[in-house]
């Protein structure tokens, strides 16, 4: 409540925030979690909590009046539609050179993501987090994160026959015929539930076009894992539809005054509250944490933050493309929205490509891919006093690096198969979706803006514990690494600061 004093306040309820809250609470520390998005536990008039990816409504988007789907066109026709402005679950946040997709709600990105839970190869870890002890991460913290998240693997025998993964089997065939390493990708989706969906014995979610705007069933989001455990301690309180706007040192005292706007579902501020916290954990995601810190430093609220604040931001090299298959390679009318496989050409070509679904319900003869690439481009957040907003210096043209790396896979497959790229999926005859990322990383990089465990330089009791710590790339999908790093850092913080 307004005016409260709390030992620990966590901004955001995504991976970093959920780990921090659970481990603090287990150590006996009461935790207040502040989340700008809604709690997603109540079905709408259609009986569903979340809309399908093919029919987004107001629940799908964070305060937009028109949808902004990553696959924006189909057979050349634009598919975005008008919706009511609402505090929906997916934010398509637009900066000058890139749209950054992020989850909004209790559970953060875990509500909207595909659940792909990938531990990077240890040999590549030094390129991800050079200051972090890799041996300790792989012995202790990656296993802890995988267990806590409920990561599982697809039954390889079932995969061979499941209708919903025909698109992935076609993807494998094409990858292998071109000599690429193909691999299953673990996921937090309940694979037994998916088997039952395919068998027709349970209510479908992944097999009913749900992903990106949420899954009613099957996916173990943080709500079912870390956050459930955190709430079960009895020491954690979550305030949804509350947005942190300021964190300021208590004048002449200790701790921080946190200013919070309470929102309604139209996004209007209906009340402003302050809470005093001894410790504040920034877990608002790479963009959310960076925006707060950059503004608070530039406007003199937290002037002692160092010059690394806002730097080291990257897009994890995300780029999408589609290929047009021959008529003898149908990808299936029924497609699981949960990708289960990838093509690994990282060492030779700098790309790891997920074989992605196109769950339209009709045969498309299309193969869709999301590539993660080894781009070295890094952007910076900065405060713009004339607009009162935080800008990001990313340039769309930088994606050419990622396109070139992804082409090391798909040019070869197209040449081997005698196929071409689809030009009807992203508007304007574009082959490459080069305007977005799902994987924002960096902006308050570990061992630069913070110490080697996320303690912000300049202020005792302020911590970063989310994707902002990771400098721009994880070589694979990021949330397992974000979770494992948070587990490592909170261990050190509990041992030394609490
Ligand atoms: P987040 O999970 O983004 O959580 C931050 C939270 O803070 C949010 O809930 C936000 O609403 C809240 N917040 C922000 N600002 C404030 C504020 N000022 N006050 C209060 N609350 C605030 N990754 C994978 O590894 N595998 C995948 O399959 C995958 N698929 C994805 C698909 C989509 C469509 C998207 C968008 C992302 C996907 N990702 C995937 C990425 C993954 O979800 C993110 O990397 C991850 O969620 C980041 O975790 P985080 O803890 O840094 O922050």
TrEMBL record:
UniProt pathway: Steroid metabolism; cholesterol degradation
Alphabetically ordered keywords of this record: Cholesterol metabolism, FAD, Flavoprotein, Isomerase, Lipid metabolism, Oxidoreductase, Steroid metabolism, Sterol metabolism
GO biological process: cholesterol metabolic process
EC number: 1.1.3.6, 5.3.3.1
Segments forming domain Glucose-methanol-choline oxidoreductase C-terminal: 437-486
Pfam family, one: GMC_oxred_C_1st
Cofactor: FAD
Start and end residues of each Glucose-methanol-choline oxidoreductase N-terminal domain: 98-295
Top-rank taxon: Bacteria
GO terms for MF: cholesterol oxidase activity; flavin adenine dinucleotide binding; steroid Delta-isomerase activity
Family that this chain belongs to: Belongs to the GMC oxidoreductase family.
NCBIfam families: TAT_signal_seq
Protein name per UniProt: Cholesterol oxidase
Species whose genome carries this gene: Nocardioides kongjuensis
């Amino acid at each position: 409540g307004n005016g409260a004093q709390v030992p620990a306040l966590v901004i955001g309820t995504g991976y970093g925030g959920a780990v921090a809250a659970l481990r603090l609470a287990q150590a006996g520390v009461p935790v207040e979690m502040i989340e700008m998005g809604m709690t997603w536990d109540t079905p709408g008039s259609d009986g569903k909590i979340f809309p399908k990816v093919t029919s987004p409504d107001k629940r799908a988007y964070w305060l937009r009046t028109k949808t902004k789907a990553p696959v924006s066109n189909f057979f050349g026709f634009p598919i975005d539609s008008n919706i009511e402005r609402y505090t929906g679950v997916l934010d398509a946040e637009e900066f000058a050179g890139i749209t950054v997709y992020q989850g909004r709600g209790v559970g953060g990105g875990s509500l909207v993501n595909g659940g792909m839970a990938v531990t990077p190869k240890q040999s590549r870890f030094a390129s991800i987090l050079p200051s972090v002890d890799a041996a300790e991460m792989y012995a202790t913290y990656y296993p802890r994160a995988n267990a806590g998240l409920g990561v599982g693997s697809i039954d390889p025998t079932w995969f061979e026959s499941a209708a919903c993964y025909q698109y992935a089997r076609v993807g494998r065939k094409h990858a292998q015929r071109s000599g690429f390493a193909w691999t299953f990708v673990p996921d937090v989706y309940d694979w037994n539930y998916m088997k039952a969906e395919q068998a027709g014995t349970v209510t479908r979610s992944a097999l009913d076009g749900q992903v990106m705007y949420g899954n009613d069933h099957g996916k173990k989001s943080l709500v079912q894992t870390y956050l459930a455990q955190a709430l079960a301690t009895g020491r954690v309180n979550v305030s949804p539809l509350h947005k942190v706007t300021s964190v300021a040192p208590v004048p002449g005292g200790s701790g921080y005054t946190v200013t919070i706007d309470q929102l309604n579902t139209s996004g209007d501020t209906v009340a402003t509250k302050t809470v005093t916290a001894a410790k504040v954990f920034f877990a608002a995601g790479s963009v959310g944490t960076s925006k707060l810190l950059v503004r608070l430093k530039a406007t003199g609220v937290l002037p002692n933050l160092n010059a690394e604040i806002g730097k080291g931001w990257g897009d994890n090299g995300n780029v999408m493309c589609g290929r047009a298959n021959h008529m003898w390679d149908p990808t299936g009318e029924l497609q699981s929205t949960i990708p289960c496989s990838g093509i690994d050409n990282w060492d030779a070509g700098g790309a790891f490509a997920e074989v992605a679904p196109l769950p339209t319900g009709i045969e498309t003869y299309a193969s869709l891919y999301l590539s993660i690439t080894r781009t070295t481009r890094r952007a910076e957040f900065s405060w713009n006093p004339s607009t009162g907003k935080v800008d990001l210096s990313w340039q769309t043209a930088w994606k050419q690096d990622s396109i070139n790396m992804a082409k090391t896979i798909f040019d070869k497959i197209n040449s081997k198969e005698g196929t071409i790229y689809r030009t009807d999926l992203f508007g304007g005859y574009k082959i490459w979706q080069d305007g977005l990322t799902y994987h924002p990383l960096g902006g308050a990089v570990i061992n630069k803006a913070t110490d080697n465990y996320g303690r912000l330089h300049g202020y005792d009791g302020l911590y970063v514990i989310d994707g902002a710590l990771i400098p721009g790339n994880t070589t694979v999908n990021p949330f397992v690494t974000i979770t494992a790093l948070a587990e490592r850092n909170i261990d050190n913080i509990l041992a030394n600061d609490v």
